[in-house]
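Note to self: keep these together.
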Amino acid sequence: MSLLQLTIIAIVQGVTEWLPISSSGHVLLASSFFGLEGRDELLINAVSNLGTLAAMLIYFRSDVWAATKGGLDLVAAPFNRRSLSPGGRLALLILISLPIGVLAGAAYEFILPDALQSALRSIWTVALATIGFGLLLWWADARGGRDKTISDMTLAQATLIGASQAVAALVPGTSRSGITMTIARAFGYERTEAARFSMLIGAPLVAAAGLFGLVGLMGTTPADGVVTLQDGLIVAGIAFLSGLASIWALMAVLRRMSFLPFVVYRLVLGVALILGGPIFGLI
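Structure:
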């Protein structure tokens, strides 16, 4: 692939990864436009997650550090009578949010037939999921002003928010960050808190996807496919820069307004895909 094509895919991945508009759907569209399909599209999408993960870890470094230290409290909890520190509780919330999403991602990769995977990654699926889950985000966000913070979150709520990632793992266009923010808003969490928790619980899954892509590209040569390890590392590096800018912009927007701009974008994109897909040969 040319450097320009890789740069465009990386910027798309970085900008959309943490926004509630579906990075997988956007990268799928960009990859399809450049003729990337099947294994190549899946791997370039996956390895680009390493860049966006690094961006999130830097932006939320204080939370990440608190949760990392809190993990030690969590391990020691069965052996002492101390209550969990705030960092330990955050680590627990992140931990219990993971299993269902991890299982869904594994099922997609190792259990779902290739034909079903291809059907799920069709432009029709992306378009309908973009519209449907965009409307769901609008409903959850418009229910009224709510100001819960992560410190108010129950274990059951964290489990359900994390479990919603299973849908995004299976259906491109859903948006992992979008659906977790939607559920958090429906539970009454303040917008920036919903986004913050969404990104923190997404980090382990994004890391797993990135490592999967990295391993898949190791030892790959141009003769094996369109995409090589060098291509993947270029995409990850550029995705880091665009991802950092995207997180900063998202948090700035949510401090001042609602999720409505993202909802409108999703509706416009979904309709454009349905109407324009046949014209541009995407459907």
